[in-house]
Design brief:
The protein is built from 9 helices and 6 strands. By secondary structure, it is an alpha/beta fold. The protein binds 3-methylbut-3-enyl trihydrogen diphosphate (2 copies) and magnesium ion.
């Protein structure tokens, strides 16, 4: 039985989020420039996107560039933005062939014009696809997202459109970039780092966390299947007791 066959198709995560980390270290290990790590990272993206669409995992969210990543050397930021544009151009057919809708979260207005317009183009072209929603987190930071949400809600209170007692979790959810996405079920981080790095803080409240030493450019379908099998062996209690779940 292959790893894939062991997966229970009735208990797949509905929303899988991935912190794709370790591109730089992958390149360094091989004596290459960091940009080669990012290039090979984008190859891993294609394999994982296709595998998720096939399973299917209906929502896949990839952390591609954080608000903090703007602080990297200018040349690396430029390389990453160029890679974004070329990947969008190259992968539009993969998205169309696999019935995948592209979505993006983050302060997208901070992206360079070219990256922004290519992103909007691919999102528009794929908007009617329904097998999977692939969300790219670009210039994304959870604190920025939550701050923006608080500002928007406060403004509504100030303008007497709502009162503070109207504010509930649903309203907050509806102001986040992720308003159209379900909560995250499984969060994977590669490269052996055990941290969240400002990713989807609100949305992972009850996510299962999975950390692997594998560097992102080495991450293949089999690693994904391992993570999903591991997830399927966990008991998600959401605060209840085990006995309540299985009376
Ligand atoms: C992840 O790999 C890609 C981005 C953050 C854009 P890194 O570039 O962070 O690789 P490491 O962590 O330095 O190895
Ligand atoms: C998180 O990785 C951001 C992305 C994967 C896009 P980083 O490599 O930027 O995170 P830190 O700096 O190690 O926390
Ligand atoms: Mg990193």
């Amino acid at each position: 039985m292959t790893l894939e066959e062991k997966i229970d198709k009735n208990r797949l995560p509905k929303h899988l989020a991935v912190i794709m980390d370790g591109n730089g270290r992958w390149a360094k290990k091989k004596g290459l420039f960091r940009s080669k790590g990012h290039e090979n990272g984008s190859k891993a993206v294609r394999e994982i996107v296709e595998a998720c669409a096939k399973l299917p995992v209906p929502y896949l969210t990839l952390y591609a560039f954080s608000t903090e990543n703007w602080n990297r050397p200018k040349l690396e930021v430029e390389t990453l933005m160029k890679l974004l544009v070329s990947s969008l151009k190259k992968e539009i057919d993969t998205l169309l062939d696999n019935d995948i809708r592209l979505n993006a979260i983050g302060s997208l207005d901070s992206l360079p014009k070219k990256a922004h317009s290519e992103l909007m183009y691919v999102m528009e072209r794929t908007k009617d696809n329904s097998q999977m929603t692939l969300t790219l987190a670009l210039s994304y930071g959870s604190r920025e997202e939550i701050t923006k949400t608080i500002k928007e809600i406060s403004l509504k209170v100030k303008n007497n459109l709502i009162s503070p007692s109207d504010i509930d979790e649903t309203m907050i959810n509806n102001h986040l970039y992720t308003r159209d996405l379900p909560d995250v079920d499984l969060l994977i981080r590669t490269s052996g780092e055990h941290r969240i790095s400002n990713f989807l803080l609100w949305q992972i409240a009850y996510a299962e966390l999975y950390f692997t030493e594998t560097l992102w450019p080495d991450f293949r379908k089999e690693h994904l299947f391992e993570a999903i099998l591991n997830y399927q062996n966990r008991e998600r209690r959401f605060g209840k007791t085990s006995e309540q779940l299985y009376p």
